[in-house]
Specification:
There is one protein chain. The chain is of the alpha+beta class. It has a single domain, classed as Tgt2/MlaC (Nuclear Transport Factor 2, Chain: A), CATH 3.10.450. The chain contains nine helices and five strands; from the N terminus they run H-H-H-H-H-H-H-E-E-E-E-E-H-H. It has helices at 5-17, 31-40, 44-47, 53-67, 70-78, 81-84, 87-106, 168-182, 187-202, and strands at residues 116-125, 128-136, 143-150, 157-163, 166-167. A five-stranded antiparallel sheet has the order 1-2-3-4-5. Helix 5 (70-78) crosses helix 8.
Length: 203
């Protein structure tokens, strides 16, 4: 199985900050404002029961691609196997990675309509900014979520989400490595599995 519990929790946190469109990105003075601005947007657009599955998927795809460094994340997640992949494999893998995330998690948006986010601080780390926040769940304990943000005002992108101390990128990297190693170290094994998952989710 590719996705584990913490990856799902991480995307639940992501759903808590997604609203309509990141319209005020250019006015955000720092990474903390970037995250908080997303959190302050009305999430009812994505979680609305009036949206069709296709509309919700389209909206989530737009937000995911606009606010996350998808090429960088997908490359990091593939880890050491990136070097052994052919150019064709790399291209297909990155396309499948993005599509898999979009299709898997867009269908869960309706379950996260009442969360809220509070940014509590920021700290620099190796050229990035770690934005510390708390996700308040309506029927559960608060969840500590740190966002690794890269870029400059108007061009910020999220590169990782750490939920209660667990990195989503590292967790997914371990999952993918396990799939590849189970296939004898062949990147094609992972690509084939992702291709199948995307096909199933598209039906």
């Amino acid at each position: 199985m590719i996705v584990r519990r913490h990856f799902l929790i991480g995307f639940a946190a992501i759903f808590a900050i997604f609203g309509t469109v990141p319209a005020r990105a250019a006015a955000q003075p720092n990474a903390g404002a970037f995250i908080q601005n997303l959190g302050d947007m009305a999430i009812h657009t994505l979680t609305s029961s009036t949206l069709t599955d296709k509309q919700r998927e389209t909206a989530f795809r737009r937000l995911f691609l606009a606010n996350f460094d998808v090429p960088g994340i997908s490359r990091f997640v593939l880890g050491r196997f990136w070097r052994q992949a052919t150019p064709a494999q790399r291209a297909e893998y990155q396309k499948l990675f993005a599509e898999y995330i979009v299709k898997t998690y867009s269908i869960n948006l309706t379950h996260y309509s009442q969360e809220s986010i509070r940014v509590s601080g920021m700290q620099p780390e190796t050229g990035d900014t770690i934005v510390m926040s708390t996700i308040q769940q309506p029927n559960g304990h608060p969840v500590k979520v740190n966002w690794r943000v890269r870029g400059t005002p108007g061009h910020y992108r999220i590169t990782d989400v750490v939920v209660d101390g667990v990195s989503m990128a590292i967790t997914q990297r371990q999952e993918f490595a396990s799939v590849i190693e189970g296939g004898g170290g062949n990147v094609g094994t992972l690509i084939a599995q992702l291709r199948q998952k995307v096909r199933q989710l598209s039906q």
